[in-house]
Please model this.
Amino acid sequence: MSSFHHNNFSFSSMAITLVLAFAILFVSPSSVSTSRTLLDHPDAKTGFQVTLKHVDHGGNFTKLELLQRAMTRGRKRIERLHSMALASSDATIEAPVHAGNGDFQMDLAIGTPPENYSAILDTGSDLIWTQCRPCEHCYPQSTPIFDPSDSFTFSNVSCTSDACKALPEPSCNADSNCEYEYAYGDGSFTRGVMATETFTFDNVSVPDIAFGCGFDNEGDFDHAAGIVGMGRGELSLVSQLNEPKFSYCLPSYDSSKTSTLLMGSQANYHVNNSSLINKTTPLIRNPKIPTFYYLSLEGITIGDKLLPIDPSNFALGKNGSGGMIIDSGTTITFLEHTAFDIVKNELIEQIKLPVVNLSETTGLEVCFDLKSVGRDIEVPKFVFHFEGADLELPSENYIITDSSGTVACLAMARSYGMSLFGNVQQQNNLVIYDLAKETISFVPTQCDKL
Model:
């Protein structure tokens, strides 16, 4: 058992699905240049580093308030992800549903000359999009809405382009320009035209990025300009770079702290290949939903006990259901209900403290009353056994406490139909996605020191 002191404890409400929000506008064809080819980015190999801010950054929320907000977002997000999985296995469901939203936003600039925006980073979707002028309908955002007529590098995308063909349901307007529409599980949506534009990240400019310029947008996107998709599909930011690799490092949760996203050649930071031994696991591909990053979870150990969980609980089904997704846009980990019950019962058995039910106020059902032990609690080792890699969680990556220090809760919840590895469990690791090798690595790192 390891000793854990509540004064130093913090939790991370930083989660999977990585989505950035970009927007570019619908303009008349006479004002733009000809279409360009998707992935034609000869200068995109240069790596860059971007600061990520949690959506509640600087909000002055208590830990309980932060947790409640995170659980609300997390429940909605896993419902959307599950809806996508169901849709992929049901031929009668025609309209695709996308993940949307997430826990982190990134700063970027769009156009020439560049204009600054903040977008949601989403590892659970592919499309990069931003609100654009002139708006038929736009939701409130924290920055002025992008106006493509102010940029001389903006270009519409034709209906015959690779970018248009990469959309799940493209359409063509009267001017032969490609149109898109993305709907999200809560009724939010974005609708507009596909275009290419120069995006700038930390003073590194990348030309000809294909993105959606949304002139009709509705929903709650935390005042971000749009979304930056970081999934495995052709239209995501990482796929459009010549070096399809990225990483992020999420510090222990604190509303005043920022996180780091590293793209392309900078993704490995200062980590050498020998440091990745026993820390790298394959990324599993789901042919039904090629966007998502799946992990091969083989088991869980609590203390010295390997739990009697049937591996089929985490297996990806032939119809595209089940499996475990790693997602930067969801705060806590969701485990398939049968596996969750085994984890819950074992943790209660080993911690041996009175259990309190705070599911209605916090959304978490495994909480312990600390009044009898003061502000210190002994917690057992917790290890996720992935294929080829064992990830042992620090105490703060799976136990959270209220601000009074009288209650501690397991930062995991039950789910039905799929499991999801959230960002609290990923904090203080450099998480490296290598799309060329189809692997993901977890390297312990003091993330606030990057």
Summary: The mean pLDDT is 82.
